[in-house]
Amino acid sequence: MPGGRTGLRIVVRPNAGAASRRRHRRKEPVLLIMLPKSIMTALEGILPSTIATSSGDGIPNVTNLSRIWFVDEETVAIADQLLRKTARNLEENPFAMMRVVDPHSYLHWEVEVRRLLSETEGVLFDRIARDLRAVAWMAGETEPVPLRSVIVFRVLSVRPCEEEFGRSISRNERFGELLEELSERLSWSRSSFWIPDGSSGGNLRLAASRGLPAGKEAMEALKPMKRIAGLVQADKRAVFFRNIRSQLRYLHTIRHEAGEPGRPKSDYLGAQPDRELATSFAGCPLFAGDRLAGILCGEATTADADTFDRIEEGFLKLLGARLGEAAAMTESMPPEEARAAFRQAIERASMEWARQADPFHTVLSPRERQVSVRAAQGWTNEEIAQSLFISKRTVTTHLERIYQKLNVGSRSALTRYVMEKNLHAEPEEGS
Predict the structure, then answer these.
(1) Domains of the chain: which residue ranges?
(2) CATH number at 9-164
(3) What class does CATH assign to 360-425?
(4) Which option is the CATH number for 171-357: 3.30.450.40, 3.40.1170.60, 3.65.10.10, 2.60.40.2310?
(5) Residue 27 near residue 15 (C-beta atoms within 8 A)
(6) Residue 414 CB: number of other CB atoms within 10 A?
(7) What is the pLDDT of residues 173-196, one digit of tens each?
(8) What is the pTM (predicted TM-score) of this model?
(9) Reduced DSSP (H G I as helix, E B as strand, rest coil) percent helix, strand, coil of the chain, to 5
């Protein structure tokens, strides 16, 4: 079979199966295929699935399924709400092929199955009915399609469709592309990316680094950033240390004058030429959903500290969120596509932060923003007053304060300010 059966367990066990389906067992030993753990996320219904069946005459049919339910390691089930041709085919020919997709890696799986029975009551039927009612309720359906039956299948074979996956990109290579983009877009000349190794101790493994000294100095240079990554992992938030070198020197001077032992834990922070000294550090977590995908760390030397130190912690948090989304999306992408996705994430975070940090949002009150947008759209003071239920005099007072806060000299200048930044297209507070 193409691609092999990676991660499968095949066991011989007599009379296997759920107790409710004993009548469908054979008395002789049965060759069972056990669903691997790596397929479980594909059975959560995040992405649609398909089932291919064939009639007794060999006429094929493919139907989309919203979800395939995991029953146990040997059994899956589907809901029959509107199945017609598929249900008839399964009565004539019980064999079928299901195809599911992992929502994180987009790896496709093929699952060969054999129909066992249809259930119209019982624990499994009630469980699937509850799941469908919950989805219908969230979708706002007043009359959801009734569940006619649950069709139960025995798994005959399962395999990942790796031949369709294209060239696999390693995590090191993928996150190396991210660090290159950070260098180009944000001038992060020195950076590293760390991944939790999954151990109970929460150890971190280096996935990629950029711009650090070569040879033995590289390991010494990574120590401060690894400590930053450990702090980010523990606090689950972005951190920023500006001009940390001068603070460390002050600390060691105080210790020395007090006669206390102590020296820098890393010579890297004090033994380099002035231009190459590490002065500031930043770290932010990247979350793919609720899962910590990795930790990004950046370091500024004396030469580029001015640019690096202007980064705000709010932007760092936003950057981590956008890169986390991109990290989940790029798991199956070739290097050039992964880099493009990271580039878009960085640009998106930069644009969102520029809008959030604009004086229009940080200086003006919600009422002043409402007045500004209406004035920029050509409303008269009287129309603004009527729409906001305030007096014309109050509108005039608001406009005078707006001109001062935004440093614009007239109504036309305010109009250009709002329109050029597309601030009028944003939803109003409370709308």
Answers:
(1) 9-164, 171-357, 360-425
(2) 2.30.110.10
(3) mainly alpha
(4) 3.30.450.40
(5) yes
(6) 20
(7) 788 889 999 988 888 888 999 998
(8) 0.49
(9) 45, 25, 30
